[in-house]
Amino acid sequence: MDAISLKLRVQRQTAGSTPAVGMPNSETVAARPPAPAVQSPMVESKSDLPTASRVAPARPQEVSAPVRLPHNNPHQPPPVAVVPQPSPEAATPRVSRPTRATHEQPVPPASARSTKEPQVSTWRKSSFRSTAIALVAVLGAAAAALGTSLAESDSEPVSAKGEAASRFSNRLARESSPYLLAHAHNPVDWYPWGPEALAKAKQDDKPIFLSIGYSSCHWCHVMEKQVFSDPEIARYMNENFINIKVDREERPDLDDVYMTALQVYFQAMRSNQTGGWPLSIFLTPDGRPLGGGTYFPPTDDNGRVGFPTLMKRVVAAWKENRKQLEENADILADGVRASLKTRVPTEAVSLELGMIAPVIKSLADTFDEQYGGFGFTSKSPDRPKFPVPSKLALLQYEAKRRNNENAARMLYQTLDRMAAGGIYDHVGGGFHRYSTDRFWRVPHFEKMLYDNAQLIDVYAEAFRHTNQPHYQEVVEDSIEFVFRELRDAKGGFYAALDADSEGVEGKFYVWTDKDLAKALTPEERTVCNALYGTGGEQNFEIGHVLEFKQSIDEVARQLKLPALQVDKQRREIDRKLLAYRQKRRRPACDDKILVSWNGLMIRALAKSGVILQKPEYIQAAEKAAHFILNEMRDPQGRLLHSYAGGKARLAAYLDDYAFLNEGLLALHLATGDDQWAQTAKQLADLQSELFWDAEGKACFFTANDHETLLARTKNPYDSVLPSGNSVSVRNLLRLTASSKQASYREKARETLELFAPLIQGSPSGLTNMALALAEYLDTVETAGANPRVRSPNLGISPNPGIILAGASEPENPKSSKKGQTKPAIVTGEAFLSVDKLPPGKTCKVLVQLQVAEGWHIHANPPGDPDLDVATEIELDQSKLGIELKNLKFPKGKSVDRGPDDKPQSLYMGKVKVIGDLEIPAKAAGRDEELVLTVVFQACDDAQCLPTKKLKLKVPVKVARADEQIKAINETLFAPSSTRKKAN
């Protein structure tokens, strides 16, 4: 029996069984519901967490049984192929240090896009299982009959470098994407995706080879150098295919459709491979998928199919088995459409808080109790970790809104471990893409704008609720990194920095002992070694990745130094190392500006500016918003997705409108400027006009006049980026609160009713949707259909100038003459951030002191605690059990006291102190007069008065459990420059 018949026979015998399509792990598929069966090994793919980087993606045997191959070399990708090759089972090897991942980000199989697989009648799945294996068999057999126009050898291909490379120039030279421009001088006759390429494929009746990647993708660079720069490989590609190159960040619509096609293909093949980048897929001339894989090497190697061999098999099958390939393409296309179709619930959906509990449980079930992070399993403890900010944001909301102590524990342990690990750039600020190990130690070194924007937001919120200075430091240093490395002169923010420099991953960021000896003094080296773990065995193959091995206090005890001195030395070490590093050859920057990612950064800057009282952050957010609104819209006011080379292009997607709107609403909260709320409302209305599905509800990813592809997606799943639909729900709730238009809330409800049922099947994949649901349920509708907001997080102050609660009382007034009062040295007022105190929650309180001219009071902390009395604020005992916490005093003015004494730290003029009022839930519906006591010592140039007290009485009302709460006094709580602008 020949090989083809044997394979078909084996397939028919097993055709009725469910294919063993594996999932990397629950984190990898956070963007999709989980599927059963075999776990796939590590790939970098589209969602959150990959599996262990030490194992190669498995390939199906001829009997469809998955196998795993060892893979130790971080610079050589594992075997990935569409063609099954027999291979022995091998155990997972361990390596001495972490290896980088194989492809760029984890992608779940297409079957995970819904809680149920498509029906056979819709997908013709059983038929596909037979023809898919038949297709592979035909490709394998056809290779032997093909000529030898492409040499098959084990030697490395000739690369088109230097003078050879300069001879080539293709159509990509006219593009603006840095990723496409990197291929502009390949000998491959590349086309960008568009009418010209598709018409040429139909005219020449050639199959299409579609390659999708992005600028900071390591293996995309490898394939460009090893495969697409080889003149002989390129010649064969040009003769037999229409070759199309796509930047997935410019065309996420194409990437979603054809990555799904690859996943459907793998599923039907019973392969536990997962997709990733570069995506390499063959299509019919009209764009239907034939099959493909990810990275392919330039030659066959140890059973791994090389790209030349694969091309020969495709060409032979296209010539000799065209009909079979066309039928298979039809089935694949049907599978893609079925997988991407959103199923409308057949029964009424009741939106309940109980839907959120499984999401929190799913995070707790995979929480790493020792090192933080999610997707952990004891069976594969060393798998890499992604930060996944949407998970952290949900935990943050649960901890704050519901007083969920377990959510708070998981949140802060993860934030602390990440900030201490190598995934965080201790020298230059900002977070790398993900950690290749469990410990957050050795990262994949690319830096993405969207990661940093979302993590800045989370850490700023963490500082707001804990007042822990290390969270503030992470926020400030990360924003400094973004300003230094990713900010365009016009105000927009670039997409990413590569992981590689000088052809080596991490070289820009990693330190050898020789580097450290050059950059630091011996004393600084000692602190660096103790603090960052340098000086001993390297934790990465080319040097040390800096990570906190010990705390400041532990290092201080070890070295017998004051903790303040160690911390000062740490900052000097970081400064010197940054200056030293800036002289190195820098990683390439993907300088395209994307509306969606900029929207995330605008929100992070606006929020951080208010929390940290940094008006420059808010100003940067405003500048970015003005740039997008002025430079990235067409004449009709519609957004354009990408800006590069001085020009905006490509119709915007749902994410662009949703993420930018979120940023504009944050700007309105930060500034009180109505222009941002009005613009957000206009864009939300335009988004509804372009993307809303009136029949099926929710928003499509592409506009109603977008290019027709195999499928029009409506993806609700949250991955490294939250879904556009989940962000839109949250925006609609905020617009409801500010505009009082019930239609916005109605769209939010309809979107949640469509997608909330999916939470049960993929709880960890819809974390931002769960957060949107929580916010929706934390509001109630009045009889007039206007929303009553219970959560101050949703409210937009209708009049930021309102002062709700104020009180002032002169300090110990004494009568100098009958009927007259001696002017007070210190007076004060107290203000609240809400019109009624929220029961079971916290709100802000602001104490504003005015020190008379010529006088001062001591700061908190004072210059010398032994000589000076620090200014303090206390809340007298509350009958309702209200507590004052997290007081934040401003920095005092330093005044020299003389050579033998410590300088004074003083407050003069106006002094603003902000704290949190924590209100018990049982206080709902009750009233009280709070008494805030300010303790201070007033001095002038000649004397210091005795310590005195100023009592500020503030009458307050605690809201009922279902009562509306309004945000007020927002400009008073914002930085001073922002208040001036708003007024």
Structural classification = alpha+beta
Q: Rg from C-alpha positions?
A: 31 Å
Major sheet description: 5 strands, mixed
Fraction of residues in helix = 25-40%
User: Which strand order do you get reading across the main beta sheet?
Assistant: 3-5-4-6-7
- In angstroms, what separates the terminal alpha carbons? 86 Å
Oligomerization state? single chain
- Portion in strands: 5-15%
- Estimate the mean pLDDT confidence: 80
Q: Helix count, per DSSP? A: 30
Which stretches of 5+ consecutive residues score pLDDT under 50? 1-165, 782-821, 977-983
Shape: globular
Task: Work out the number of β strands.
Answer: 30
If you had to describe this structure to a student in words, what would you say it looks like?
- With 983 residues, this protein is of the alpha+beta class.
- The chain is built from 30 helices and 30 strands.
- The strands form ten sheets. The chain has a five-stranded mixed β-sheet with strand order 3-5-4-6-7, with helices on both faces. A four-stranded antiparallel β-sheet has the order 20-21-27-24, with no helix packed on it.
- α9 (252-268) packs across α11 (322-340).
- The termini are far apart.
- The model is unreliable at 1-165, 782-821 and 977-983 (pLDDT under 50).
Helices and strands in order:
Blueprint: H1 3-14, E1 59-60, E2 66-67, H2 120-123, H3 125-145, H4 163-166, H5 178-181, E3 190-192, H6 195-204, E4 208-213, H7 218-228, H8 231-240, E5 242-247, H9 252-268, E6 279-283, E7 289-293, H10 307-320, H11 322-340, H12 357-365, H13 389-401, H14 405-420, E8 434-435, E9 443-444, E10 447-448, H15 449-466, H16 469-485, E11 496-497, E12 500-501, E13 504-505, H17 513-519, H18 522-532, H19 552-559, H20 563-581, E14 589-590, E15 593-594, H21 595-611, H22 615-631, E16 640-644, E17 647-651, H23 654-671, H24 674-691, H25 724-739, H26 742-755, H27 758-761, H28 767-777, E18 779-781, E19 787-789, E20 826-832, E21 842-851, E22 856-858, E23 872-875, E24 883-888, E25 893-895, E26 904-907, E27 910-918, E28 927-936, E29 938-939, E30 948-957, H29 970-973, H30 976-982
Parallel strand pairs: 3-5, 4-5
Antiparallel strand pairs: 1-2, 4-6, 6-7, 8-9, 10-11, 11-14, 12-13, 15-16, 16-17, 18-19, 20-21, 21-27, 22-26, 22-29, 23-28, 24-27, 25-26, 28-30
Helix pairs in contact: 1-3, 3-10, 3-11, 8-10, 9-11, 13-14, 13-15, 13-28, 15-16, 15-21, 18-20, 19-20, 21-22, 21-23, 22-23, 23-24, 23-25, 24-25, 25-26, 25-28, 26-28
